[in-house]
Structure formats: structure tokens, C-alpha cells
Amino acid sequence: MTQHVALSHTTGSFEAVVAKQLDDPEQFWLDAAQAVDWDQYPTAALDDSDAPLYRWFPDARLNTCFNALDRHVLAGRGDTTALIYDSPVVGKTKKYSYATLLDKVARFAGVLADAGVGVGDRVVIYLPMIPQAVVAMLACARLGAVHSVVFGGFAAKELASRLDDAEAKVIVTASGGIEPSRVVEYLPTVVTALELSRGTVHTVIVKARPEVPGSASEYASPGTQWWDWRETMMAAEPHAPVSVAATDPLYILYTSGTTGSPKGVVRDNGGHAVAMTWSMKNIYDVGVGDVMWTASDVGWVVGHSYIVYGPLLAGATTVLYEGKPVGTPDAGAFWRVVSDYGVKTLFTSPTALRAIRKVDPHATLARDYDLSLLEAMFLAGERLDPETWTWASALLDKPVIDHWWQTETGWAICASPRGIEQLPLRAGSPSFPVPGFRVEIVDDQGHEVGILDEGHIVIRLPLPPGTLTTLWNGDQRYIDGYLTAFPGYYLTGDSGYFDRDGYLYVMGRTDDIINVAGHRLSTGSMEQVLAQHPSVAECAVIGLHDTVKGQKPAGYVVLKSGIDIDSITLAEELVAMVRNQIGAVAAFKEVTIVAALPKTRSGKILRKTIRQIVNGEDYVVPPTIENIEAIALIVATVDPSLN
Ligand code: COA
Ligand code: AMP
């Protein structure tokens, strides 16, 4: 087992925590559990009776919402600010104390209960970055119901597939969201999704925003009642927190898999509360009274963990920012928010920094703001390129901490845990495995590789508390997809290597997932859409390097024989299909027609080779290639002189 610790780089505190966790993981997590208020205290941490599926705190009971809100109010911190809503797109800011947020959440839990939602029922939340999103999530947690938040940039078909997979009873939505360039009306999308879905939803609750047309009263669909958020809130009775088993699901979060159908990552209540609370203190060094701003979206795991649950479980103040890093109104927006609210810890994505840097390369706008309270910036969601890390570190003169994690893990696998010890940082590395994650690098046969050798990054089972317990309705899919390739390990899907001092370097995915502007997307699902076009015989979607978004999808299509369609028309049609079926967030805009795609003799498209060629990387043509001449066709798309 490898647990790389840079002996020469720590004062010993980090090593001591790593050693303690390895020495007695059961006691380590039971100790960590003391930071949570339980209705029934855990007497055991790990339940491995159903391995390789693991459960945490099997005999304990709690309520996550109680831990996030009530207990802070009961401790006399009701007046402390829990949530700051800052929306440059509608020109509003609003602060919610813990007492106010608790009141709203308890009332909305009452609304959901009136709609027949109880323990274990699924509620899909399709909301923009407005306080109602936080209220709805916590209200579900209060009832022991299971929320599934769907990012606003997804189209109706994606929403419908999530409604069906989760068998949702209720949708909580709004009239819409606001992108800098346009208003995004949600209700037509919801109606289409309801039509496409199997009809499990009986209630739609709509927050009508003055800035976006549409309200509950304008809609009616057979078998579905439409309620207005404001009216129902006024009539509702506050609902008390419902005690649930620690192993009961808190939420399902769908993420891109290697096939078209999204995977519902299941998070439990108990393990999650323990992991979130532990990570706030030990990784982020954020506690009661501190201000943490995570500039992400509640539709992503980063938003779940560190806009909503982590900061509130810790009794901190969280910022909910409905805006962009640039253009709302300018590239100084992040520095303005940090300064306005005295943010201590900022968490964002490398893409956001690259977007700011592109517009304001010398960060002159940052000079207008007081950033003195900011102590550290954390980055995740995609690889942090050394150039961006160096730029941000010089700009802030504070630790800029890359940390690596996934929707599945729910919190950082590798980080420099600031609350334990600020370890020296290295460009291009998210530092060390966090206690609880036993990270190893293996080759295709599952043998551990040497230092500096790149391979599959795997994590020895069991994963720590707070990580996925399974996929929704998909124990076998979880086992097949993650736990079978290398028995005894969880397959992260990322490749990378350790350096001599134990720093991990995460280099990229080994599957067909790409990361576009910090958004995780499946090229496989885009290919499924392109293949539906009547002119397309076959296609490959690959990730092209992009200086701001990290990657962007690009489609290579082969036409059916005898088809005569001009390339611009075809590209427009394909781009529209992906936008309509997956959503604007796919950012699919590039199509190239080629006469053939390189394939192996068994008919497998050589996507990796195509990706390497079009990204200008070194490539090796596999000996199993069927049509070597197709390589020249791909080369010609990047080097037209060869045409
Ligand atoms: N609802 C509806 N549409 C959305 C959306 C949402 N919540 N979020 C994005 N979109 C749309 C955008 O408007 C855009 O549409 P367009 O094609 O009509 O222009 C499309 O989806 C692609 O969006 P995006 O890839 O984000 O590009 P962008 O040019 O709009 O913005 C950035 C670029 C860098 C400013 C933006 O991607 C960003 O802020 N990224 C950081 C992401 C992040 O924090 N991720 C969390 C990981 S920790
Ligand atoms: P998501 O599930 O959307 O959080 O995406 C997870 C994937 O994003 C990981 O498997 C990585 O491929 C990538 N990723 C996230 N954080 C990092 C990071 N700090 N460094 C490199 N890749 C990252």
C-alpha cells in the first residue's frame, strides 16, 4: 500500500494525522463523528458486511439539515450570517442569518410535506443560483427526502432522463436563469421534460422571478399540479427535522458517464456530514464565523459540498454568487466579492481564473479591492495548469491550492490540508492524498508502477466517509464501472503519477469524459446525438485544447455514401442537435467532415490517436490499425497544406 508523504516537507502534523488514520481508521472516523450532532450516536464507523459496497455509521441516526441550521441557532448563533446572495445579473444582494434561513427551510419543508414528500422520496431541483436552491436542498434534507439538483444549462431530454431515473415526485424550479447574453426560460424546458418523462412527477413548484417571464399559474399539465413558491410558502407550517439513518441517501447527483445515460451518484447522510465537517476544518481551515465563497454552481458537486453543506455544517458564512468571473460586469467581479464580504477562503475553477486573466492579464482590477482578509484560494474541477497557478499565486501572494476530486468522491482526494498544515505547493500537482484516501498508480494489469511512471490512479477500498455509496438503482453498474477493473480498488478514471516526494500529478482522463470550463461532459453522449443525423455514417467527438476552457468538444463526422450536404449546413444542424438534446453547457460548436476515421481491425475508432493529432501532440499509430490512410486525413484537418 502506498501512502506517499513528503517527510522532508512537513512539520510533522500532516504526517501524524495520516499515520493516525492509517493506524486505526475506525477510531479516526468515530473521533471525527464527534463534530456532528446525532440523534443516535454511532458505535461503529465502517460497515463492510456487503463489500465491495461499504456503508458508514450503520447504527447511527441524524438529520443533516438540523446539523446545518438548527444546531447553530440553538447554540445562540441565530443572528450570524449563514448565506450571502450576490447577483450582479439582477443587481441584488441579500444576507440571510441562520435564524432566517432556518425559518425559510422549515417552511419549505412544510410545503414539500404538503405535496406528499416524505422520507426517501425524490425531489428534482432545477434552479438557478438563487437562495431558493439552497432552501430547497436543505428542506429535502430536513424531511429525509432525497434531492437531485440538475444544472440549469442542461436541456429537456437530460432533465427528463434524471426525472425518470430518480422517479421524482416533485420538481422545484423557477421561471428561469440569467446568462449574461440572454434570459434562459426554464418552464418550457420543464414542460418538455415532463412530456418526455414517464410521468412520476405530480407537483411542480415554481419560484417566479420578476426578471424572467413565466409562473405556475400559466401552466397545467395532465396529472401534475403547479404551485407558486411564494403563495405556498405563505400558507405553509414549518416542519421539524426528521431523523434518518446515517446510511439513508441525502442526495443523488447525476454526472456524465461513459455512456449516454447519466450516473446517479448517491451520497448518504451520516458519512457525508462527518466528511464535510472534517474537511471544512482540516482542508479549508474554515469554521464558525469565517466567510467561504465557492464560485461554482449548486448544480455541480462543488456547489453541493462547498456552497451549501460544508460551510453551513461548519457554522460559517457562505456566498451564493449568481454571476460570472468576467462580464458581470467585468473581470474584477471576483475581487469585488472577496472584498465586499471579507472572504477568507475562495474556491473556484482554473477556467474562471483563465477567463479573468485573458481579459485582465495583469489583474489591474484587483488593485481596486481590499483582499487582505483572503487567506487562501482553492481550485478544482479540472487540471490546474502551472501557468495559471503561477499567475494567481503571484497576484494574490497567498497559497493557491490545487485539489483534486470528483462528483463521486464528494470531497478532495488530494490536497494540501491547510487546517492541519500548509504544505509547500508545487505547480501542476494537487499535493498529497488526504487521510482516508489510499491512492496508488497501477498499470493496465493492475501492478503498481514506479515513481514518476504514469498509470491509472486508483484508490484502495474502502473509500472514506462522504464518498459515493453506490449509483442510484445501480449497485451492479457501480461495481462494474468502478470496482471491477482492479479488484480491491476504486477506479478514478484519471491517469497520473507520483513524484519522488509523494506529490501526485493528475494528467487527464483515461475514458471519454472531457472537462469543458470545469463542466464534466461525456463525448460518448455527444456522439450518440451526432449519430442520429440522417447524413452521418459515423463520428468521433474528442476534446480539443482550449486556452480558457481547458478543453472544448470537436466532432469528426463521416457522411453516408451518396450524401451531398454543404458542410456549414451540416455543422449548424449538428450543433443545434447537441444543444437541444444535451444543452448549451455542452459548448459543442466545432464539426469537421472527414472521408474516414482511423479504426482498429476490430472496428474501434482510434479516438485517442485523433485527439493527439488534432491537439498537436506526439502520437503513435497502433499496430492494430485497419486503415492507415485515415491518419493522413486527420492530419490534413490540422495541416491543410497536406490536402
Ligand atoms: N444555465 C443556462 N445556460 C448556461 C448555464 C446555466 N446555468 N451555464 C452556462 N450556460 C450556457 C452559456 O450561456 C453558454 O451558452 P452560449 O453557447 O449560448 O454562449 C454555454 O452554456 C456554454 O457555457 P460556458 O462553457 O460556461 O461558456 P461561457 O463562455 O458562457 O463562460 C466562463 C465561460 C469561463 C466564464 C464560464 O465557463 C465559467 O464561469 N466557468 C467556471 C465554471 C465553474 O466554476 N465550474 C465549477 C467547477 S468547480
Ligand atoms: P467532476 O466529477 O465534474 O468534479 O469532474 C471530476 C474530474 O475532473 C476528475 O476525474 C478529473 O478528471 C478532473 N479534475 C477535477 N479536479 C482536478 C484537479 N485538481 N486536477 C486535475 N483534474 C481534476
What secondary-structure arrangement, pairings included, does this model have?
Elements: H1 13-23, H2 25-32, E1 46-50, E2 53-56, E3 61-62, H3 64-77, E4 81-87, E5 92-97, H4 98-114, E6 122-126, H5 131-143, E7 146-149, H6 156-166, E8 170-174, E9 176-179, E10 182-185, H7 187-196, E11 203-207, E12 225-228, H8 229-235, E13 244-245, E14 249-255, E15 263-268, H9 270-282, E16 291-294, H10 301-313, E17 317-321, H11 333-341, E18 345-348, H12 350-359, E19 376-379, H13 386-396, E20 400-402, E21 414-415, E22 432-433, E23 439-442, E24 455-460, E25 470-471, H14 475-483, E26 489-498, E27 504-509, E28 513-516, E29 519-522, H15 523-530, E30 536-546, E31 550-559, H16 567-581, E32 590-593, H17 607-614, H18 629-638
Helix pairs in contact: 1-2, 3-4, 3-5, 3-10, 4-5, 4-8, 6-7, 9-10, 12-13
Bound molecules: coenzyme A (COA) and adenosine monophosphate.
The site of coenzyme A has 28 residues, from β9 and α12.
